[in-house]
Amino acid sequence: MGESGTDPRQLIVELCAHMYRLGWASGTGGGISLRDGQRVFMAPMLATLIAGDTEERRMKATWLSDSGERGDEITADVLADNGVLYQRLSTDVAAYQPPMARIKAEHGYIHQDEVALRPGTPDLDLICAKFVDEHHHDEDEVRFVLEGEGVFDIRSNDDRWMHVEVGVGDLIVVPAGRHHRFFLTGLKTIRCVRLFKDPSGWVAHYRHAS
Ligand SMILES: [Fe+2]
């Protein structure tokens, strides 16, 4: 550790943030400590996560050029103007079920399940390959992230790319018929609640079908 050149005080915060993004820490207690020679650094998990929370968990959405260059930030209001619902919810089951129930009632979603992708998921690359080409579905794509992270690129009303990074606690609704694509990040981990009107509607229609 001492040879890495990384300040242990910075490293301990980064470790806490990393565990949080993986969904391994809820921010409700516990702690973490690092030993560097004779020195021991301790961070209460809650304090660390609160400190990192506003930076780590703020929605990260930007315009994206067709050549992949990121532009100005996009707010949740701009996403809403473009038909994309974005909300932050607690990942505590008791806390997220009431707002989830409201969303289900408002939009007519009657099925709820959970899906997880992890580095050890069989055929992970094949599964991910189905999402990376631009496509749409006959019903809304609803994802509430409980663990890990991912990236949605979603077409705006005027067919520009909106690049939306989602992480733990993010709920996103990509409307039916709207072209989009999805990528895992380097974590290769995401676990989400999915909502459907009809699970059979979640079939990808590719924009550039060969
Ligand atoms: Fe999709």
State the share of residues found in helices, binned by percent. Answer: 25-40%
Number of helices: 5
CATH class of the largest domain: Mainly Beta
Count of domain modules: 2
State the low-pLDDT regions, or none.
50-56
Number of β-strand runs: 14
CATH topology of the largest domain: Jelly Rolls
Structural class: alpha+beta
The hetero molecules present are: fe (ii) ion
**Quaternary organisation:** single chain
> What is the distance, rounded to the nearest whole angstrom, between the alpha carbons of the first and last residues?
51 Å
Rounded to an integer in angstroms, the radius of gyration calculated over CA atoms is: 19 Å
Q: Report the order of strands and helices.
A: HEEHEEHEHEHEEEEEEEE
The main β sheet shows up as: 5 strands, antiparallel
The general outline is: globular
CATH superfamily heading of the largest domain: Jelly Rolls
Q: What is the strand content? A: 25-35%
Name the strands of the widest sheet in spatial order: 4-3-10-9-12
Concise overview:
The chain is α+β, with helices and mostly antiparallel strands and 210 residues long. The chain has helices spanning 8-21, 45-57, 76-81, 93-107, 124-132; strands spanning 31-36, 39-44, 60-64, 70-73, 85-88, 111-117, 135-136, 141-148, 150-155, 161-166, 170-174, 180-184, 190-196, 205-206.
